[in-house]
Specification:
This protein is an alpha/beta fold. It has a single domain, classed as 3-Layer(aba) Sandwich (Rossmann fold). Helices cover about 30% and strands about 25% of the residues. Strands 1, 2, 3, 4, 5, 6, 7 and 8 form an 8-stranded mixed β-sheet that branches. The longest helix has 13 residues, at about 15-25. The chain starts with a strand and ends with a helix. The model has no long low-confidence stretch (mean pLDDT about 95). Bound molecules: flavin mononucleotide. Flavin mononucleotide binds near residues 12, 14 and 109. Flavin mononucleotide binds near residues 50, 81 and 83.
Length: about 160
Amino acid sequence: MNKKLIVFFSYTNNTKTIAQKIKEKLNCDMIEIKTVKPYSNDYQTVVEDEQNSESSTHLPEIEKININLNQYHTIILGTPVWWYRPVPAVRTFLTENDLSGKTIIPFATNGGWIGRTFEEIKKLCPNSNIINEINIVFENNQLKTKETKIEQWIDSITKQ
Ligand SMILES: Cc1cc2nc3c(=O)[nH]c(=O)nc-3n(C[C@H](O)[C@H](O)[C@H](O)COP(=O)(O)O)c2cc1C
């Protein structure tokens, strides 16, 4: 059976909203990546603190994933874009877990500057089959990408 798992990180809940939408439709398992050291509640502080992450190789420690990834064939991977890249906690997840041979369907939420997010996911998972990625834009936390586009994308995932 082609078992699917949603894995995501979210700071201001945009990515979480999309992850929950996917879960409602697919009725599959879902896990949220969390950093051991929480980020500041002050948005601007996080934006400024993370600015150096544009070129950084720093991987923040994340909470242990209490799920056996071996049982899943497909990982639906959600990340906000931070400084044109996948969020550092997602980079930690991809570095610590071998997703070779699995299909990865990435979705990235962002304010319109996706940068090299999908390229970097591909680089971190050279032996995975990365398909059907979608860029979902929020402006001031309001969804800008058409709902119908997202619904169609979710429908297409159910077949994978
Ligand atoms: C530290 C930080 C860096 C960001 N960098 C970018 C960026 O490079 N490009 C972009 O379009 N949006 C950027 N954003 C906006 C987020 O990608 C966007 O609001 C995203 O939907 C947030 O997802 P979340 O609510 O799940 O945390 C940044 C936000 C933060 C907090």
